[in-house]
Amino acid sequence: MFVLPAPAEPSAFWSDVKYTENFLLQQSASTGGGAFLKNFLATIQNVLETKPPPYRIVYRHSLTADAFILLAVAEDRDEIEADWKWLFENIMPAVVELDEPAERASFVVTKIRFLVSAEGGQDVTADRKMRAATTTFRQTFDVPGTENLVTYYSCALQKNIMMHQGWLYL
């Protein structure tokens, strides 16, 4: 299931299942190995990463990148394979054509953000705030269903001594 792009760190707790120059499908180390090793790694991983799903897809800027962008997570192999197939067919061909790593990253993040905001009907725990913001955006501005919220920011306006807080929707 695609999630809002977020920073992710390379870790020994993840092993590569499939990869291209910019995308990696990874499996949690806590899902393989013997029972003792699996339980030990799962405990450590839960403490450090607050129980991540066993599969994820990340984007890396270059082969030497030491930071990733998390794009999708899944509880089972079939679900993450479907996401990988969609990325392979719809995003990877366009990414290959872009020259600059910054352009590639920006393109991928924008496409995945749009995809997540367009799937407003799914209940994704990791994107609960985005879903709530989308609902508030639609109710406040009475926009049609064809309009999508890409992102939102907290903002403030100081008028005399009063501070007014609100949201900026894009």
Q: How are the secondary structure elements laid out?
A:
Layout: E1 2-8, E2 14-19, E3 23-28, H1 35-49, E4 55-60, E5 68-74, H2 77-90, H3 92-97, H4 101-118, H5 128-141, E6 152-159, E7 162-169
Antiparallel strand pairs: 1-5, 2-3, 3-4, 4-5, 6-7
Description:
Helices cover 39% and strands 28% of the residues. It has 170 residues and is an alpha+beta fold. The chain has a five-stranded antiparallel β-sheet with strand order 1-5-4-3-2, covered by helices on one side.
In short:
By secondary structure, the chain is an alpha+beta fold. 39% of the residues lie in helices and 28% in strands.
Structural class: alpha+beta
Mean pLDDT level = 78
The total count of strands amounts to 7
Helix content: 25-40%
Strand order of the largest sheet: 1-5-4-3-2
Task: State the major sheet.
Answer: 5 strands, antiparallel
Using only C-alpha atoms, the radius of gyration works out to: 19 Å
> N-to-C terminal Cα separation, in Å?
23 Å
Name the beta content range: 25-35%
The number of helical runs is: 5
- List the helices and strands in order: EEEHEEHHHHEE
Shape: globular
Q: Which stretches are poorly predicted, pLDDT < 50 over at least 5 residues? A: 121-126
